[in-house]
Design goal:
This protein is α/β, with parallel strands linked by helices. Helix content is 31%, strand content 15%. It has helices at 37-43, 61-64, 84-90, 105-119, 122-130, 154-165, 176-184, 193-199, 219-223, 244-251, 291-309; strands at 2-5, 26-29, 49-51, 72-76, 93-97, 146-150, 169-173, 188-189, 202-205, 230-233, 256-259, 280-282.
């Protein structure tokens, strides 16, 4: 098959052990990010299988209609960036493993790294030291503080465990079903959303982005947080009401933020409002970007291509597109 891989920024995939699974195929890897439909249509005109790295590129009808040879899109996890209806109409199969029961440990670890970095002002202290200054402020410890986990799924559960190991009091707010799971694991749950935002010293978002969760964290929620509190988002930027985080940080509630996700990615403009704030730690959506995580993810993705070639596609999101 003619396989195209988009957005492999650091040309990493060909160095993975699992890349051997594509041996014998004609593989083309693109290392830059392009969203222009004309440019993508030209690049992918002969592609029969398209490999996506998470949600880096939007695959919509305007592009799909110009890719007559495309038969398969293989990726992992959720797919809000793919027009599934257009794929089905055109007979393009979308295979996407949902990796049930397997959290992204890489994302959970980065979340904890951001919490430590923000609470101890690690990036700011490093920058000051390089500028010839010594100790620019006083940080905060985590022990005995309240860690709020908003969304108790696979990653939220791991982060809650890290909080427990650091001697934090863990408080969970989530759906009724997820709160029941948290209670079964020995964690406390908040009496309500308002109380959750008021009581927590650190809040970490671990919700999937869907219609019901888009903008679920409102300006009013953020205004309830303490001036010493920290909000962390390694999930999706759109979970927070547009513009609400910047305004809340300027108002001083919460006092700090640590973010790995943005409304428009990649962020290549240094004037982005969050990048200019001293009370924000920013990373460029690297939650899942580790070699170990890539081996896990792309082993699944390449297996889906192998399954398609054998005539038995797996993890099919749109079974209506399967040949009758």
């Amino acid at each position: 098959m003619k396989i195209s891989i988009l957005d492999d920024y650091h040309d990493t995939l060909r160095t993975l052990q699992c890349f051997e699974k594509l041996r014998g195929h004609d593989v083309e890897i693109w290392n830059d990010h392009v969203q222009d439909v004309d440019a993508l249509a030209a690049r992918l005109k002969d592609t029969s299988a398209l490999v996506l790295i998470r949600e880096r590129t939007q695959i919509r009808a305007a592009l799909l209609d110009r890719l007559p040879k495309l038969k398969l899109i293989s990726q992992r996890s959720v797919y809000p960036h793919i027009d599934i209806d257009a794929c089905t109409r055109l007979g393009v199969i979308v295979s996407s493993s949902q990796h049930a029961g397997t959290p992204s440990y890489a994302t959970a670890e980065l979340t904890w790294g951001l919490i430590l970095a923000a609470m101890r002002q690690i990036p700011q202290q490093m920058a000051a030291l390089k500028a010839g200054k010594w100790q620019i402020g006083v940080g905060n410890t985590l022990r005995e503080k309240i860690l709020g986990i908003y969304g108790y799924g696979r990653i939220g559960r791991e982060v809650a465990g890290y909080g427990r190991a650091f001697g934090m009091k863990v408080l969970v707010w989530a759906s009724e079903e997820s709160r029941a799971r948290a209670q079964a694991d020995g964690y406390s749950t908040a009496g309500g959303k308002e109380a959750f935002f008021e009581e927590c010293d650190v809040i970490s978002l671990h919700l999937r982005l869907a219609a019901r969760t888009r903008g679920v964290v409102t300006a009013s929620d953020l205004a309830r947080m303490q001036p010493t509190a920290l909000i962390v988002n390694t999930s999706r930027a759109a979970l927070i009401e547009p513009g609400a985080l910047e305004c809340a940080l300027r108002a001083g509630r919460p006092g700090m933020a640590a973010v790995d996700v943005y409304e428009e990615e990649p962020v290549l403009d240094a004037s982005h409002p969050l990048l200019g704030m001293d009370n924000v730690v920013c990373t460029p959506h690297i939650g899942y970007v580790t070699r170990d995580e890539y081996e896990i993810q792309f082993s699944d993705i390449f297996d889906q291509i192998t399954a398609y070639c054998s005539g038995n596609p797996v993890n099919v999101v749109n079974p209506e597109a399967l040949p009758r």
